[in-house]
Amino acid sequence: MNITKDRVISINYTLTNSQNQILDSSGSEPFSYLHGHQNIIPGLEKALDGKNQGDSFKVNVPAADAYGKRDDRLITTVSLDRFSGADSVKPGMQFHAETPDGELQMVTVTKVEGNTVTIDGNHPMAGLDLNFDVAVVDIREASEEELAHGHVHSHSHDEEDCDCDDGDCEGCHDCG
Fold first, then answer.
1. Over pLDDT 70: what percentage of the chain?
2. pTM here?
3. Which residues form a coiled coil (predicted)?
């Protein structure tokens, strides 16, 4: 079985930047996602398309096909008063902020000077070319529930297979 849309793919990966520094990895457990549903960066998903279980490969994903180029318009300064619920505000901290459209966006604090805070709405890896070392561990058909929800479910409730010990569990730990 090869990787195509609507299949659940499990991979082991190591992600490095152009200086070969490890930025992320799947660790001891494979990472699973629903292929073709924009659950991973476009460049990696495209590189995985058509691969088979057992395949291993390396791929360089340019910034434009990863988290995009940095956009200076997403960097702004706000008053420290906007963080009234936080005990302290320091560079590197991340918060959810509401956009003018009412959407939530993750922002990173880059500088605090007096009562002014500089925040950056770019993804932390925006502007970076990314290198992946990938091994395809498993490929399976997605369940109807996974397809309806657009992502992988951690376990199934078909025929009472759930072993999560949550009496109120309805099967989708990712979307409630």
1. 88
2. 0.79
3. none
Phi, psi of 52 (to 5 degrees): -120, 160
- pLDDT of 161 over the 70 cut: no
* Sequence spans of domains, the chain: 7-67+126-153, 72-120
CA angle 27, 49, 9 (to 5 degrees): 40
For the chain, report the end-to-end CA distance as a whole number of angstroms. Answer: 31
- pLDDT for 169 beyond 50: no
Q: pLDDT tens digits, residue range 16-56?
A: 999 999 999 999 999 999 999 999 999 999 999 999 999 99
Query: Cα-flanking dihedrals φ and ψ of residue 150, to 5°?
Result: 80, 15
| DSSP letter, residue 52 | B
Q: How far is CA 95 from CA 77, 87, 111, 137, 143, in A?
A: 14, 13, 14, 34, 34
- 136: three-class secondary structure by DSSP: strand
- Is the domain spanning 72-120 CATH 1.10.1200.10? The answer is no
Q: Are 164 and 50 in contact (CB under 8 A)?
A: no
Q: Measured between alpha carbons, how far is 62 from 129 in angstroms, rounded to an integer?
A: 4
- CATH architecture of the region 7-67+126-153: Roll (3.10)
Look at residue 164 and tell me whether its pLDDT is greater than 60.
no
